[in-house]
Amino acid sequence: MPVTAENLAEVKPEVVTAVRQLHEQLDGAMQSGPEELTVGGLPALRFRGTATIEATPIEATVIFVFDHTTQYFLAASTRGTWPRSSSAAATRSCAPSR
Question: 4-51: per-residue pLDDT in tens?
């Protein structure tokens, strides 16, 4: 099904379930989302959560961008041991304009 801004709400529950399961599989949890936004004029959903990769806790931001029948997946993460300034920079890098 082509995904547009007009029908984004129809696919949102499926994406929420997938993101929640991904975080749980990585011994983490979805913290927030979905947040509707626009990336390059395309509808998108942003989520924030936690996970554990190779025994290292991380904070992650994932964004799904929809272009009709194409879906893009963007991810940014920071390790919990990084200084806050690095964590903030990583968060800004994964924060598309609205």
Answer: 999 999 999 999 999 999 999 999 999 999 999 999 999 999 999 999
Domains, the chain, ordered by start: 5-93 (3.10.450)
Instruction: Report the predicted TM-score, pTM, of the whole model to 2 decimal places.
Output: 0.78
| Nearest to 78, CA basis, from 87, 65, 68, 89 | 87
Beta bridge mates, 76: 61
Go through the chain and tell me how many residues it has: 98
Burial per residue of 42-60, b for 16 or more beta-carbon CB atoms within 10 angstroms, e otherwise: bbbbbbbbbbeeeeeebbb
* Lookup: tokens for 30: 């979805």
Q: Report which DSSP code applies to 6.
A: G
State whether residue 94 is helix, strand or coil: coil
Phi, psi of 28 (to 5 degrees): -135, -155
Contact between 24 and 46 (Cβ < 8 Å): no
